[in-house]
Specification:
The protein has a domain of 241 residues: NAD(P)-binding Rossmann-like Domain (Rossmann fold). By secondary structure, the chain is an alpha/beta fold. The strands form 3 sheets. It has a 7-stranded parallel sheet with strand order 3-2-1-4-5-6-10, sandwiched between helices. Strands 7-9-11 form a 3-stranded mixed sheet.
Length: 354
């Protein structure tokens, strides 16, 4: 079996759900169930004997030791992280505690567990750490895309905390021989994405008749990766990746934020037209930019394609259509995640940006 941390969040939940479409191998899920960890994401597995869900923190060493001894996983996939840049700007401490201190406690528990395995079990074991392209900093329009050799230049509390966790993972391989793998992915999108992030926020606000806030001039560029493509890449790295290596995972889809906004509006115009006949584009408003907003990210995913044979299955056009349709078909899920805390956060982040 494998242990998956952060499994009730956006990417973690998609990974677990997709895992069982590909495998019968059991999964133990560990999630702290903060605002972004949603039990509804894994509701379809409630009575599945292959899946065990445990509420807990990767910073809880006693719990980690107990789970590792009880279930004896052959691999760990670590999604557990605070991941929203805006939240890290308003309150960086949670990011330091989870992304750095939490990763340290997880590594320590895994190192002790791994040390007690047989020689063959040690050889076969893997610790896969899921990270982000934001650790590399910002690119100019003419710069080549990020490769695995790009220097780290994080510019937000979030990306700095993820960079620190990446360095810890690398150090545990170099110093202790722990067989680790690190993946750095571009912007994910797809089902179960918490609606504080760009694409689900656009859909939710559009349908509610609210403004569609665009930071600055909207020309910040990101590489967009459909979440199940990301899940497939992680499975590929877990199966075939070389211990100690880093693999960049991207969708080969560089898009400006404003282009994303226009695309989502056009799809909603097609799928769920406004009663007044106007385009959802009429709800777009430009607001004050995020402090220190990185201008461009771009992933060169050549290494994982060349060495492991992975490439994305979805184009942006196919993936974004599936995403918008999923949110339209799952309005109950959307309504349930928009708690009082969510509404307070949105008000806090956007008040005064006009």
């Amino acid at each position: 079996m494998i242990l998956v941390t952060g499994s009730a969040g956006f990417i973690g939940a998609n990974f677990v759900l997709d895992w069982f479409l590909q495998h019968d191998e059991a999964v133990v899920s560990l999630d702290k169930l903060t605002y972004a960890g949603n039990l509804e994401n894994l509701a379809s597995l409630k009575d599945d004997p292959r899946h065990v869900l445990v509420q807990g923190d990767i910073g809880d060493s006693a719990l980690l030791n107990k789970l590792l001894a009880l279930h004896r996983p052959r691999a760990i996939v670590n999604f557990a992280a605070e991941s929203h840049v805006d939240r890290s700007i308003h309150g960086p401490e949670d990011f330091i505690q989870t992304n750095i201190v939490g990763t340290f406690h997880l590594l320590e528990a895994v190192r002790a567990y791994w040390g007690g395995l047989t020689a063959q079990e040690k050889t076969d074991f893997r610790f896969l750490h899921v990270s982000t392209d934001e650790v590399y900093g910002s690119l100019s329009p003419s710069d080549p895309a990020f490769t695995e050799e790009h220097s780290y230049q994080p510019n937000s509390p979030y990306s700095a905390s993820k960079a620190a966790s990446d360095h810890l993972v690398r150090a545990y391989h170099h110093t202790y021989g722990l067989p680790v793998l690190t993946t750095n992915c571009s912007n994910n999108y797809g089902p179960y994405h918490f609606p504080e992030k760009l694409i689900p926020l656009l859909i939710v606000n559009s349908l509610a008749g609210k403004n569609l806030p665009v930071y600055g001039d909207g020309q910040q560029i990101r590489d967009w990766l459909y979440v199940t493509d990301h899940c497939a890449a992680i499975r590929c790295v877990l199966q075939k990746g070389r211990a100690g290596e880093t693999y960049n995972i991207g969708g080969w889809n560089e898009k400006a934020n404003l282009e994303i906004v226009h695309t989502v509006c056009a799809l909603l115009d097609e799928f769920r037209p406004r009663d007044d006949g106007l385009s959802y584009k009429s709800q777009i408003v430009f607001v004050a930019d995020r402090p220190g907003h990185d201008r461009r990210y771009a992933i060169d995913a050549s290494k994982i394609a060349r060495e492991l044979g992975w490439k994305p299955a979805e184009t942006f056009d196919s993936g974004i259509r599936k995403t918008v349709q999923w949110y339209l078909d799952n309005q109950g899920w959307v309504s349930n995640v928009q708690s009082g805390n969510y509404r307070q956060w949105v008000e806090k982040n956007y008040t005064g940006r006009s």
